[in-house]
Structure formats: structure tokens, C-alpha cells
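If your schedule permits, I should be very grateful for your opinion on a structural question. I have a record of one protein: its chain in single-letter code and its fold written as C-alpha cells. Would you kindly read the sequence against the C-alpha cells and tell me how you understand this chain to fold? Thank you for your consideration; the sequence and its C-alpha cells are set out here.


***
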Amino acid sequence: MPLDYVKLGFKCGLEIHQQLEGKKLFCSCPTVIRKEEPDFIVKRRLRASAGESGARDQAAAFEQAKQKEFAYQGYYDSICLVELDEEPPHSVNPQALQTSIQIAKLLNCKVVDRIIFMRKTVVDGSNTSAFQRTALIGRNGHLEVNGKKVGIDTVCLEEEACQVMARKEKEDVYNLSRLGIPLIEIATDASIHSPEECKVVAEKLGLILRSVPGMKRGIGTIRQDVNVSIKGGARTEIKGFQEFKAIPKVVDFEVTRQLELVKQGKEVESSVRKAEADFTTTFLRPMPGADRMYPETDVPVIIPKVEELAKVELLEDKAKKFMDLGMGKDLAMKTVKSSDLALFEKLLKYDKVKPAFIAETLLSYDSDVKSKFKEADPKKVTEKHWEELFSELNEGKIAKTSILEILGEVCTGKKMDLKKYELISEDELRKEMGNLVKANPSAPLGVLIGKVMEKYRGKVDGKKVAELANKLKR
């Protein structure tokens, strides 16, 4: 029986974390996450500092009590002393700063008049310094989802943590290449009223983030944390979502878990839990509080430059423009979310080819060539190949039906040869069709069309063949 979330007093809020491309937040090291064997390893132990209130955060104290040692993997050509916490942070990455302000404005936030970085105590090994630098950029915003306003409490800019490589009883191993990547954190209020609505809000925020240049793409570059609570339960933060579609199932499990504890008369403790692959949640640590925050003394106060923001077209608005060009809603949304969006927009200049056909070709060619051609590598198709292909199609020199064959040849290492696929002349086609009709006067129309298409594979336009066959059979 479905849960009645209104009756349960369900409250839910989202935190979205999005990595940025370019340089790191406090140094000039690249934002490339390395996977190969490290050049060096540094080992550390971390201790929790008292926050601005003078007390130690309970989550930090919990982590320190494990008494673990941390091993950090590094690379000489992409890791500097800032990541190792052997040198103070450099100036804040200006592009990351402007991008975070841009996101805050798109979410209708009030941008703060002074940007002040704070230190957030983190001693689980994910930061070599035992803290994470974070700054409030905007607050009190909102976004509209299905006619409802969902509040945006804060938009922050912070540094990404190290990537965990292995966890052992007495030691955790981290890779330093991810540490310091600029990270935008968006936190909604608790006005989300169901797990499904939570997923929709997450998708909407993801689409807004993708509208702004400079966002990293791919698995792990955007993460969602979900905060949930019910009457008699306790606020729980669920971390580790990699896909939007997992949100409703994991949230539903967590609500059910808390509901069972409440029914048994047991106390539900506020905590941070991990979203597992089977849609359950497991305990990570106690819920952190305000005690973990204290001022960052190495980064000066910044006055935001709101007037320098570049104009941004939301992907949702772009999808509506594509729909005006005759594309269906689903196809338009798939296109704006695709990594081929910029290429699609370039190819729209070939105005004799329908935009829907261009989009469908770009979105499907990868799987199509892999299924039809052995050892096909779709990455061999370059932007230049696409330009040549659609230029010829636009001029009526090749047929749509030949495109997969042409792409297949390129993907298997052959040189693109468009002359090989040039359409035969109308005179030649008329002559061939005339001979076929005379030789097969009683043959069905479809048979005649099939014979021509088979003989001139990819070199005739099916629509033109059908029109001509109709005329000759009258």
C-alpha cells in the first residue's frame, strides 16, 4: 500500500553538488581526475578543530575517534602544495566565482554583498587540511516546478574533496586529483512533499546547471544529497545518489525505516546515511552542526561583480525553440541534454534537412553503427565529417538512407567517400524504372520500388522512387 506522505508529515530538501571545468578553486592545477598509478604517496593523521562556537562538531569527533591514517595519492604534473596543505590557497578562481553567481541569479537568489570563505571541519580524510573551504554566494531564491515554487535556501561555492580509492580498518586511501575542483552547492528548503517530486526538482536543477557553460559532465560530476524527516522521526541526510531515478526508491526506503522505528517506540537518531545500490540506506556518521564552521583567514573578502554576468539561455527555453522547429518534446529534451547539443545547433544551418532528422541521427548513430558494424568506433566521426555529410544531404547529392553506411565506414577506419554514395541522375532513374515497368507490367508497386532500392543501395531517394513508380504505373 502506498505511503501517505501528507499524513506522515513528510518533509524533504535537496542538496545538489556540481563540479566545474577549468582550473581548481585555489590554484592553477587542472580539474582532470587521474586514474593511473600515482607518482607519490603522502600519509597523514587529522584532528578536529573547534568551530566558531568554541565546541567540536560531533560528526568530526566521531570520525577522529576512528584513529585512522590517511594515504594520499598524488601526481607531480597536476598536484601542487595547495592540495597537500603545505602552502596557503592562491587567489580564488575568477571564472568559478562568476559561474556560481550566475547560478545564484538563475535561481532567483539574492547575491550576498560580500563573499566570505569559511572553514568547515572535515576529518574523514577527504581533505588534507582537515577542513573544506566554502562560501555563501546567494540565498532566499526559488525555482518553479510543475506550477509550484520550491525555495532555494543557499547557493555556495566550495572545494571538492579527495576521491576515496580504498577503505581499510586502520587506513583510508584517497586520490588528490579531485581535491580542490570548484564545486557549486545548491540547497533547497524543505517544501518538497513526495519522493517523486524530489526527483523532479533534482532533474530541474540539473537542467539549469547544464544551461551554464563550464559544467563538468559524466558520472560523479553531479551528486545529490537528500534530507528527509517524518513526524516522530528525525532529520536524516542521505548521501551518494549518482542517478536521479534512484531518489524515489531510496527516500521511500528511508521513510519506511523511520516509520518502523517509530511504531516500535524506538528513538530515531538524526544522522548521515549512505544510499546503497539496492536502494537501502546505511549509517555513515552523526549529523554535523554549526560547530564545524569557523572563519578562513587565508582568503580575503570578495566583492561580487554581478554586473559582469554573461547572458544565459536556459536549456528548457532552448528545448521550446526546437519544438517550434517541428521537433517533439521528448526529442527536444533529449537533444538539449545531449553532449552533441552544440554540434546540433551548428548543423541547423542546413535548412533543407529537417531539424528532427538531424537530432535523431546524432542521438542514435552511436548505437546504430555499433550494432551493424563490427569493431566500429563512433568516436572516429568528427565534426568535420558531420559538416560534410549534412552539406551533401542539404544539396540533395546523397540520400538519407546512405547515412548509416557512410558513418559505418568512417567508424571502421575507412576514409569518408561521399562520391561513392552520390544519387544517380533523375534521367537514369526514370530510364531504369521505365525498363522495370515494361519488363514486369503486373508486378506490384512495392516490388518495383524494392528492386530499384536494392540495385542502387543508398544512391536513390526512396521518396523519389515511389513518386516516379506511381506515375509510370498509371
In short: The chain has a mean pLDDT of 89.
